[in-house]
Structure formats: C-alpha cells, structure tokens
C-alpha cells in the first residue's frame, strides 16, 4: 500500500500486458543456479492482492522479462538464463485499486528443456536434479496415448518426462503445484508412471506401474465440497516411502492421500512419467526426486585453477572434466558468474577467465547430449582482492560539524577517486574524520511554587549558553514583561510554564516549572454602620482583594424583602457608581430620598474573580444613628 510510481521502461511496457508502473514494490536476489521461478500469491492464495504482475530486471534499469498475468490473485514467471552470482531485481505490481498483501516465492533451479505433451517427444532426464515448470497447457498431437480406464481420467494439460536407470534402486518424487499455499485449494496435479520395455522410444508398449488421480470431492451437481472434507488429497503428490497402494482414483475416498508407493528401478530399464494439471489453470509445478536409484546420463565436471593465485584481474583457468558413457555430448554451455570476462562461453574449453571483482564466485557448465539429455555442474570458489601492488585508490572526506549539541545534523561527504570506478576490487583506503559539536545548553526553570489567587510571583530561571541566548517564557499572556530569566508572573490558574533558551545558532533547550494557585474565594464586609454625616463609617460597602475582578452587583434589602439599594462596580463591563474598597461609596443609609429606619438589613453580592469564577456572598448590616 502507498507505493509510489516508477519511471516506465519502454521495452517492458511494450512486452508486458497492462503494465502501469504505478504502484510497484521491489525486491532483489542473487541466484546460485541459472533458472528462477518467481511466484506472487495474492487474492485467494493467502493474500488480498489482485491481478499481480512480475517484472524481472538485470541490474537497475535493464529490463529482462515479465509475467504473462494469469489470474486475479496469482502470477508466476520463469526465467532460465540468469548470470550466476549477479544481483537481479523484481518488481511486483497490482492492478490500480487492487493493492493488498501477498506472498513472494523465489526459487532458483537447474532448468530442463521446455515440457512436451507427447510421449515420443518427452524430455529426457539424465539426473535427479529438481526443476520447475511454469505452465502446463495443451495435450499434444497424440490423443490416444493413455489406457481408457486409467485413474487420471485422460490427458489434459500435460507434460512427459523419460529416463533410463543407471544404478538400480528405489525411486520417489514429489510434485508440488505452483500455487501451493497452506490451507488453500491448489491445482489438482495428477500423474502416471510407465515402464518402456524396449527403451526410451518404446512409447507404444509402455507398461503402467503407478497412477495417482486423487483430488477434490464434489456433490451430485459437480460442485466442489469444503476443503476440510478432502484436505488429504490437496496439494503435493507423488511416490513416497511407506505407501502401499499403487493407484488412487479420482476424488478423495478410502485411503486416498495423494501419494502412492515407490518403484524399484532396474539398471538399463527406461521409464516415462506423464504429469497432468487436472485443474487446467495453466499453472505449472515443481518436482524433486528421491530414492537410491539413479538416472543414466553424462557426468558434468570441471576444475578451476589459477595460474598464479585466485585473485581478481588474474587469469583463472577452467578445465573441462565432463564425460558421457552413452550418447555423445553435443553442446557445452558455460556460465562463469558475476563480473567474469567473458561471462559466458560455449564449447569444451579450456577457458581463461578474468574476474573484475573479488569475493565469493559461482560458475557452472551445462551439457546436452545427442538424445536431448541435460546435466549441470556448479562450483563455488573465492577470488581474492587484487590491489596489493597496483591500487591507486584514494579517499577524501569533508565534515560539517553539528550545529547543536547531540542533534544529528552533522554530515560527512566522502568521495573516492582513482582505483576501480565501482570499487569492486577489494582495495581499501581510509581517512579519519572528526565531527565536533558545541557544548550543551543548560536551562533550569527553577523550583515549583505555590501562591494565592490574585498574587504575583517572580520566576527564577537559570541557564548557560556558549553563543548568546534569547529567553522566552510561555504561555506569554501571564507575563507583563518577558525575555528575562526572572520576570514577574500573574497566573490566574495553576499553570506549567516553559522556559526556552535559544542561542545564536538557533539551538534550543527548555525546562518547565509549575506555579500552583490556591483558590480561596473571600469577600469582607462590615456588620454595622452609622450614616450620620461624620464622614466616618457613613457608607455600607464591601472589601475585596487582588483575586476579585469586579462586583457584578451589590444589593441591600429591608426586613420585608424590599430592595432598597443596588450598586454595580465601576470596573464591571456595564460600568456603575459603586467603587469597592472605599469608605465614601456604597449605600448611604437612605431609601427613596429618606433616611432609612435604624435596624438590621440583609445584603447580597455577586462577585466575579480574576479566573472568571462567579461566587455569591450574603450577610446582614445593622444601621444605627
């Protein structure tokens, strides 16, 4: 999900169906064998990816091949001409809108000839090397090659393989569908194994030895039943040690389990195997062989020697040791691996090869005989670096120091010159580079404090900085003056303040301090007054502190509940005549222009504090003469 678009490759776009270059993801692999099977298993095969495509590249930007695009949730690609030891790249792309999860399987193998669908053209196997076939389609020209009552039901999408036994012994094998995935329904691969009494070309008189046709169970209408009812007949099939039966018919009944018993091959006798994809999906299979018996064929072999030493840019000799005791060897195909000059060759040799790089190397020779038999030999060896006496490599580096302490913004730009341009010879050169950084900024916002609502306090910030400093306290609204280490602060609520120190390089350090505000909402009022014109205690008023923002209202009532006075604080948004905390403002003891009767009166006040909390207060006041 979220993969970005790639630059289209013209060759790949022209060769591949519906390739968009819009949402591909990339992988790489290094083959040890000359062929590869790449499979993508998406929707219906354990993932959710729809309509996958596979594109293979030789080095970055060098297109090689692409998959045909076979199914909504699965695709595969076989390529049989890899350069051993070289890095190859795979791009997997889905349809637009079909992105999702998938499994990627990459298997390298020694290739055999493309499959044939007729016995008389069957591919000749000369050893028991495993191989993979990417597709099974068609049933050949000969339509009556199988007995009518054979357990596999007939010839469908088929491939034929034949061989002659060299050393006698048992034969087992396992056929694995290319879409094999745990707990998923796979292609139904079936097979039949015959003896060829008069040799490899005696297809007319073949004798049935084993037959395996087990598969899915269906209902009366031909619908496939749930996998749980026939899981033992799903997936891989073949000949297996411990099995006793020699044939299993279609479906999954009785003791059917997709495997039948091994055969014991006899020296000099020939055999032929037909493999059917009963599902007709077009997908292929992989096969591995076991048992003590061997196949008759040539022996591929060679030696790798160095005229001086195994070192890149030095001559390395490849000496052919292959032989065939049956039909003659007609072709030799050599693959000398990554960075070899030349990389490929034909003929029996010997060959003198130079390697442009050092490290682990792999080379192979593939033989083919006159009867179409192919075998491959693979040899590993190590090539040493080649620069002890001739290297002109030189490395330089430019350092950019860290701007701020412990922030990884420093960098080293390194460059090599001379030597081998891609630096693949194993030569080394080094240079020491020192990155420096300024000392850390230290910021300390001071200890936490506790104050009463309405009070102010002073901060106690401390700092050290090598290159100047700008100071800032946040949030800023509580500071009449900022930019100092010890400004006065007027918090209305418990607040955590950040002390930020910034030096001339823009490097910062911060610390925090909390000022806790105790909120005890109070209001003071007298309980007696004497409005006699003495200019002392002539008014009833309330007394506030710094925690009070303003009085919203002050009211006085007589004992019958009549409102006889109402005042609003001058500091209130609506304004008023009442000035709190004053001996010359408030109720003057009159009502409707007349002196009020001495006695006890009730008052109430609505007070807004600086944190915008509103509190109600009440009491009584005694008027005396």
Q: Report the CATH topology name of the largest domain.
A: Jelly Rolls
Q: Strand order across the biggest sheet? A: 8-10-18-12-13-15
Strand content: 35-45%
Q: What is the helical fraction, as a range of percent?
A: under 10%
Mean pLDDT: 91
Low-confidence spans: pLDDT under 50, at least 5 residues?
none
Most strands sheet: 6 strands, mixed
SS class: mainly beta
> Judging by the overall fold, what is the CATH architecture of the largest domain?
Sandwich
Strand elements, count: 44
Number of domains: 6
Separation, N- and C-terminal Cα atoms: 90 Å
CATH class of the largest domain: Mainly Beta
Backbone shape = elongated
Number of helices: 1
Radius of gyration: 46 Å
Folded structure, characterized:
The protein is mostly beta strands. The chain folds into 6 domains: 10-109, Jelly Rolls (Sandwich), CATH 2.60.120.380; 119-290, Jelly Rolls (Sandwich), CATH 2.60.120.380; 302-383, Sandwich (Immunoglobulin-like), CATH 2.60.40.10; 387-430, no CATH class; 442-518, Sandwich (Immunoglobulin-like), CATH 2.60.40.10; 528-623, Sandwich (Immunoglobulin-like), CATH 2.60.40. Helices cover 1% and strands 40% of the residues. It has a 6-stranded mixed beta sheet, with no helix packed on it. A hairpin with a 4-residue loop joins strand 43 and strand 44. The radius of gyration is 46 Å and the shape is elongated.
């Amino acid at each position: 999900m979220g993969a970005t678009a790639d630059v289209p490759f013209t060759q790949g776009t022209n060769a591949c169906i519906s390739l968009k270059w819009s949402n591909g993801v990339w992988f790489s692999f290094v083959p040890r064998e000359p062929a590869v099977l790449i499979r993508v298993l998406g929707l219906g095969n354990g993932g959710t990816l729809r309509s996958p495509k596979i594109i293979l590249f030789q080095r970055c930007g060098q297109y090689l091949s692409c998959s045909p695009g076979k199914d909504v949730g699965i695709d595969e690609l076989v390529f049989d001409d890899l350069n051993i030891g070289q890095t190859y790249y795979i791009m997997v792309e889905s349809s637009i809108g079909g992105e999702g999860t998938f499994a990627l399987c990459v298997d390298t193998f020694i290739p055999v000839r493309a499959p044939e669908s007729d016995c008389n053209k069957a591919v000749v196997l000369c050893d028991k090397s495993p191989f993979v076939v990417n597709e099974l389609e068609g049933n050949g020209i000969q339509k009556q090659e199988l007995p009518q009552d054979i357990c596999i039901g007939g010839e469908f999408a088929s491939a034929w393989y034949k061989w002659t036994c060299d050393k006698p012994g048992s034969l087992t094998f396992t056929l694995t569908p290319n879409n094999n995935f745990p707990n998923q329904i796979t292609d139904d691969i079936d097979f039949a194994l015959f003896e060829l009494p008069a040799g490899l070309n005696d297809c007319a008189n073949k004798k049935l030895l084993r037959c395996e046709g087990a598969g899915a169970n269906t209902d009366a209408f031909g619908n496939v039943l749930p996998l749980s009812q026939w899981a033992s007949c799903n997936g891989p099939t073949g000949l297996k040690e411990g099995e006793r039966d020699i044939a299993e018919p279609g479906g999954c009944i009785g003791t059917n389990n997709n495997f039948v018993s091994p055969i014991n091959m006899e020296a000099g006798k020939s055999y032929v195997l037909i493999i059917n994809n009963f599902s007709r999906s077009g997908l292929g299979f992989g096969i591995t062989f076991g048992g003590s018996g061997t196949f008759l064929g040539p022996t591929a072999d060679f030696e790798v020697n160095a005229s001086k030493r195994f070192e890149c840019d030095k001559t390395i000799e490849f000496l052919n040791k292959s032989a065939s005791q049956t039909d003659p060897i007609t072709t030799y195909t050599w693959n000398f691996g990554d960075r070899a000059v030349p990389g490929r060759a034909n003929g029996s040799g010997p060959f003198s090869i130079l390697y442009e790089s050092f490290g682990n190397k792999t080379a192979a020779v593939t033989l083919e005989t006159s009867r179409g038999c192919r075998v491959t030999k693979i040899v590993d060896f190590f090539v040493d670096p080649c620069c002890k006496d001739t290297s002109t490599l030189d490395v330089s580096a430019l350092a950019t120091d860290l701007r701020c302490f412990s922030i990884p913004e420093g960098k080293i730009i390194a460059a090599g010159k001379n030597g081998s341009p891609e630096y693949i010879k194993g030569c080394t050169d080094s240079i020491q580079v020192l990155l420096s950084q300024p000392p850390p900024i230290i910021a300390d916002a001071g200890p936490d404090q506790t104050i009463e609502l309405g009070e102010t306090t002073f901060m106690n910030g401390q700092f050290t900085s090598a290159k100047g400093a700008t100071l800032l306290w946040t949030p800023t609204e509580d500071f009449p003056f900022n930019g100092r280490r010890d400004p006065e602060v007027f918090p209305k609520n418990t607040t955590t303040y950040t002390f930020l120190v910034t030096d001339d390089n823009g490097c910062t350090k911060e610390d925090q301090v909390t000022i806790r505000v105790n909120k005890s909402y109070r209001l003071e009022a007298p309980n007696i007054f004497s409005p006699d014109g003495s200019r002392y205690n002539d008014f009833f008023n309330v007394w506030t502190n710094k925690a009070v923002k303003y009085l919203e209202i002050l009211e006085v009532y007589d004992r019958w509940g009549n409102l006889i006075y109402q005042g609003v604080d001058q500091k209130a948004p609506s304004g008023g005549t009442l000035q709190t905390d004053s001996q010359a403002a408030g109720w003057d003891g009159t009502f409707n222009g007349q002196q009020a009767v001495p006695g006890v009166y009730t008052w109430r006040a609505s007070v807004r504090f600086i944190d915008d909390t509103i509190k109600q207060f009440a009491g009584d006041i005694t008027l005396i003469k």
